[in-house]
Amino acid sequence: MKQDCKIIVFAKAPVPGFAKTRLIPALGAEAAGRLASRMLSETVAQACAAQLGAVEICCAPDSSHQQFSSLQVQHQIALSAQGEGDLGQRMWRAFERALEQFHRVIIIGTDAPALQAEHLRSAAQALREKDAVFAPAFDGGYVLVGLSRPLPSLFEKIQWSTATVMQESRAQLLRVGASSFELPAFHDIDEADDLAFVPPNWLAN
Q1: 8 exposed, middle or buried (CB, 10 Å; 0-12, 13-18, 19+)?
Q2: 17 neighbors 30 (Cβ within 8 angstroms)
Q3: Alpha-helix runs per DSSP H in 17-160
Q4: Whole-angstrom Cα distance, residue 142 to residue 71?
Q5: What is the reported pLDDT for 143?
Q6: pLDDT > 70: what percent of the chain?
Q7: Mean pLDDT of all residues in 171-175
Q8: Which backbone phi and psi does 21 adopt, to 5 degrees?
């Protein structure tokens, strides 16, 4: 019997030089790694605070980083590995697996500090009536995607990490006749200019 809802946090291990590399020119590798670590912790905390059901961290390159293990124990959540492939292939693999067990599945990244538990609850509520839900990013991508039924085409032939991701995703929704809901847009933290949208205490040493 299927369970109700699952949140999957897509996360890179917060290793200096591996995570948030586009922030290294502004922050340095160590500080960029610390910010990635803080964003990971805060995102998982919000996912759990939403109290929607199961929470999982889907890890890259694997689940061996100590912070993943610490969060697993702290919040009593699951870990998995993203595996190979582009972002679309990795997300669809996670969705396909989770939708076999859950009616509603939401994937979020760790790059949007303003994405809070109440937004996750709004997304889950929308999935009671819609096939898909998105939280667009101001840079043209999205920071949240949720599904209530399998829609593999949403993750195919998308130019990932470009300003057209959300536009292309909307076009795919129309192409397959899927219903959808969009939350308000969020800032994600990728470039130096985005640091203005990070809580100041998250950048403290």
Answers
A1: buried
A2: no
A3: 24-27, 29-49, 66-75, 87-99, 117-126
A4: 24
A5: 98
A6: 100
A7: 97
A8: -65, -30
Round to whole Å and give the CA distance between 30 and 50: 31
Contact 113, 42 (CB under 8 A): yes
Name the residue among 149, 114, 120 with its Cα closest to residue 134.
120
For residue 205, pLDDT beyond 90: no
Could you tell me if 130 and 180 are in contact, meaning their C-beta atoms sit under 8 angstroms apart? yes
Q: Region 59-76: what's the mean pLDDT?
A: 98
Beta bridge partners of 142: 136
pLDDT digits (tens, 9 = 90+) for 6-53: 999 999 999 999 999 999 999 999 999 999 999 999 999 999 999 999
| Separation between Cα atoms, residue 179 and residue 138, nearest integer Å | 22
What is the Cα–Cα distance from 83 to 203, expressed in whole angstroms?
30
Mean pLDDT over 152-168 rounds to 97
Place of tokens 């293990």: 69
Structure tokens at 171: 């076009």
Residue with tokens 């995703």: 169
Q: Do the beta carbons of residue 165 and residue 159 sit within 8 Å?
A: yes
Domains of the chain in sequence order: 3-198 (3.90.550.10)
Pairing of strands 132-136, 180-182: parallel
